[in-house]
Amino acid sequence: MTNRRKRIGSQGNPPADGSRSRTFRTGPARGGPVWLYGRHAVGAALANPERRLHRLLVAGEPPSPPDSPRIAAEPVSREAIERVLPAGAVHQGVALLADPAVEMSVDEFCTAAALAETGLAVVLDQVSDPQNVGAVLRSAAVFGAGCVIVPDRHAPSVTGALAKAASGALETVPLIRAVNLARALAALKEAGFWCIGLDAGADTPIGSAGRFPRTALVLGAEDEGLRRLTRDGCDLLVRIDGHGPLASLNVSNAAAVALYAVTRGAGGAGQKR
Asked: How many other C-beta atoms lie within 10 A of the C-beta of residue 228?
């Protein structure tokens, strides 16, 4: 009924000799400075010591004006802010030009998770809309996930729109880019994670999935769902049952529901049935 697959290194201990090759990028993020906007996104970036800050533009007196000892605010008009941002950006009178945050690799996350008693990760398979990825980051932060993993290709760049949708979560939940998503799932398994994929056609409802000390939720794009290799890399496929006339949820909403389902109850994901 369920498609539980053979676990790899279920005790979560990395090889003692460090023989597993590093296939994931680490260190500074690629790309130059990017404009962030909106009070939550800008405020969180100002509080992140890993961010290198370049310019802080403030129009008028926002209800919660950003403040940072690391950079002085430049008083400007709203029109001046709009000139440096994409058309239609809801900036709330603040914009910050900053370097991308330092990236974490899948290996680094797995090494840290292997030493912890519990862990939670979200894996997105070719979810390309920055608003959706940002919303998933926000839900991941609310429910205590340690990271959101996306493929190196077929995933959006970290833009101001993504940061705005994340509402500050981009500074607290690492967005990790994996060169190969199937290998990323294998690395998570080595670190003791149980990989649960969301699939509308799965036999098991998510409420019956049980609890696992370390859980990785795997979600696909809204139209295509999980790709075959990604689906094959999951230990278990589950579905979210609805009761209304619509057949499915937006991927960011599905992520929020799934995160609640696997963390609900005393101890959340740390409780196993």
From this structure: 8
What domains are defined for the chain?
34-98 (no CATH), 106-270 (3.40.1280.10)
Nearest to 54 by CA among 46, 62, 43: 46
Reported pTM: 0.82
Place of tokens 């991308």: 100
DSSP string, 74-113: EEE-HHHHHHHS-TT---TTEEEEEPPPPBPPHHHHHHHH
What distances in angstroms separate CA 258 from CA 119, 142, 219, 222, one per listed residue? 15, 13, 10, 15
Q: Rounded to an integer, what distance in angstroms lies between the CA atom of residue 35 and that of residue 75?
A: 16
Give the residues across from 149 on adjacent strands. 123, 176
pLDDT at 270 over 70: no
Spatial neighbors of 168 by CB under 8 A, at least 6 apart, are: 40, 41, 43, 44, 138, 141
> In angstroms, rounded to a whole number, what is the distance separating the alpha carbons of residues 84 and 93?
12
Section 176-187 average pLDDT: 94
User: Distance between CA 241 and CA 239 in Å, rounded?
Assistant: 6
